[in-house]
Predict the structure.
Amino acid sequence: MKRPIVKYGHSVLRAKGKPVRAVDEHVRALAADMLETMRAANGVGLAAQQVGEALQLTVLDISEVEDRPSTLRWDGKEIDPLSAMPLILLNPELVLEGETVSGTEGCLSFPEINAEIDRAESVLVKAETLEGEKIEFEASGLLARALQHEVDHLNGILFIDRMSSVSKASLASRLKRLQKETQRA
Ligand SMILES: [Zn+2]
């Protein structure tokens, strides 16, 4: 079931997600709904906070993006990132690696707002799956950027927090308007 996406101005986006201790029906249904919601919105990632639940759960799928490459190393082997999509990650933890690179980001909770954000070029990810399996992988490129963006959401951090002060100042009136619209709704 597709769910409404929570927009900037809603307090749940600032809530740190609680760890997922057990995968029950609620968590399974939530993950399935998040995938459907993300795809319907043409997003590459969605965090539980964005559908109103402060939980350490995120979904990602970069399959539809053709112009921004990613790499993925799984169990020490380089694999086609598309073969691992979609990713449904519980309790993910990141180790940032490599250089800092700037790239364009948007966010489904901030319609039509984009900015250049500095992120680590690659990340080492430790997480759990819906099947209760512990996984570890290394990603770079767009996938690394999306993972950093989503794990930030799980900790109540938004991409506007990582914008340059110049970008944020230039978006200030749009952000204020969005915040007001959300709070009125
Ligand atoms: Zn986002």
Q: What stands out?
A: The helical segments are 25-40, 142-154, 165-184. Residues 165-184 form the longest helix (20 residues). DSSP finds three helices and seven strands in the chain.
